Amino acid sequence: xxxxxxxxxxxxxxxxxxxxxxxxxxxxxxxxxxxxxxxxxxxxxxxxxxxxxxxxxxxxxxxxxxxxxxxxxxxxxxxxxxxxxxxxxxxxxxxxxxxxxxxxxxxxxxxxxxxxxxxxxxxxxxxxxxxxxxxxxxxxxxxxxxxxxxxxxxxxxxxxxxxxxxxxxxxxxxxxxxxxxxxxxxxxxxxxxxxxxxxxxxxxxxxxxxxxxxxxxx
Length: 218
Description:
This protein has about 220 residues and is of the alpha/beta class. It has one domain: Phosphoglycerate mutase-like (Rossmann fold). The protein has helices spanning about 20-35, 50-60, 95, 115-135, 160-175, 175-185, and strands at about 1-10, 10-15, 20, 40-45, 65, 75-80, 85-90, 140, 145, 155-160, 190-200, 200-210. Strands 5-4-10-1-11-12-9-8 form an eight-stranded mixed beta sheet. Helix 1 runs parallel beside helix 2, helix 4 (about 115-135) packs across helix 5 and helix 5 (about 160-175) packs across helix 6 (about 175-185). The mean pLDDT is about 95.
């Protein structure tokens, strides 16, 4: 089974690009929760808040992580009014998202104000992710991934960011991006897990868990 775990950094100190005291507590609890979870490789965003979160898990599991630049948080600001005030695309309220009707995979770029800004950013992320999978012998073909040989059982953990995770989920699950942004939550230090579901030489990703924060109670 090929599996990926998308982990958002712990409670952030954005000003200093690290994590808060609460964040350190969350990261320690996460590491303890992952102690007995089989993880074969760890990849991490270059940003400090992701690196600080990841270090607890890497140390607990005695693993070395690899930093990938494309795992950094997405540039998703857009101007929301004439005063030039900015808002993140993934922070637009669902009430505003649906102000002009329903959202589909085909029409969303004409229904939300951030589409011109976020679409090229999202496409760059998707290319980077697909290049990563191609290097693992899993090239994308249309809306599916080709599996021309037996894929080894492997679990990969990515320490990254809220918008990165939400945007990737839209791509892997074929859900319109604005729906993911406005109606799904990714809390600090949460885990979101997907497996590659194989059939007849192809695979699609299946969501196993979303925004798992069970370690908060540890």
